[in-house]
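Q: Sequence in, structure out?
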Amino acid sequence: MEKNNKKTKIQYVGALLLAIIVCVCLLFGGCSIGNTKTITSIEKTGSSGLTDTYTITYSDGSTYNFYVENGKDGKDAASPTIQEIYNQYVALYGEISFADFLQMYLKTDNVDNSAVINQCLQSCLKIYTEFAVTSTSGWPYQTSTKAVSISCGSGVVYQIDNDYTYILTNYHVVYSASANADNGGNIAKNIHGYLYGSDGTPTETSQTNNGYKVYDYGDYAIEFEYVGGSVNYDIAILKAKTSDVVAINENVKAVTLADSYHVGQTAIAIGNPENEGISATEGIVSVDNEFINLNIDGTTRSYRSIRIDTAIYEGSSGGGLFNSRGELIGLTNAGDNDDQNVNYAIPLDIVKNVVNNIMRNYDGTTASTVKKPKFGVTIDTSNSKYVYDETTGYGYIKETISVDSVTTGSIFDTLSLQAGDVLVSIVVNDNEITLNRYYEIDNVLLQLRANDTVSIKYKRAGETAQTDKYTIVANDFVS
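A: Exactly. Output:
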């Protein structure tokens, strides 16, 4: 749960303290921590104005502080129940969970995310990929030798079905520009993974296959098949038989996807740094959206990313980035070699939309990629500003999105949009999607399917209007 130190207008009295203490115990796993760590005392240790500090002391000597803000005269809320206070919070903040309510209700420090991290480990694995390559040696008479190049990365369990379990990683983990075309091509010819707690490494055998050495991955290895991916988004999907996965560990879990993420929230990276095994590091979201340049296949592209100060290293690519609830907010994929604690991850909305898009186009046998329609428009942005929402305690950046040019014969041309129009929203099947940032247009394109209807709400010369509906057809889609 994310800390929220926003002051509330709801006041309460000391009569609730016992109920609060019980809730604290429940929130952090009960009053017995593991098999040996228990709560030995809870006592008031300080006071400042209306705020009292209480300290929980554990059997191992560690402590945890929480704070109680008292009513101004002790009579403001005569013996309310914790449920009544929760109901008032729901009225103020909307449908929040009880756990979220407790984090808002109790200002805490010394947050311990170890339980969340341990939960996330059920969904994490390290990945090995094999590529067939040719090395040359000798001078002046060079000789060519066939070889197998093995790379390592990370992944997360995305979905578990009766037949197959689907894994997410980075496209650059399963792709090599230098791989030989005669034995698998640029996508790895062999992909194996190890769930956390069931570790292993490939070892070279005496066997060869078409001149390439064969590796043994041991009893814990799970063999994966490439489902599809996108170099433009640096995302790849793998699958394995669910029976093979649960044979290694029946407790494996698919990740839970977050609804959103915000600057300052906890960012926990779990991956396989330096091929030393699955490990966890913790930081925060530093920048919610930033563009970085990556060269995966010989072409430099711009990638929208989350910037984090969480430590990641080579081998962390494709690992999960989690919030303090243990929900996935991205896939780690890049770092800045020149600056310490400047690292990057693929944002949650891209992960969800790209994966859903690829899976829609997957026929079960042939590898798939992203397919989306083109609107045929170039965009200008202006008036970018930060907007803070006092209700949620978070903010977002909003910008004016204007049409710069329209391609003749395109969808936008058919809808009679023109240069200078300000885009307000996209209406898909009568569902209006407000546009705050220009890249949100791409999110919509990734979600569109044949037979969906699209119209655009826009402003022209200060007047708001909406276009006619356009029905998406198969010919509109490009890879």
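The first strand starts at residue 32 and ends at 33.
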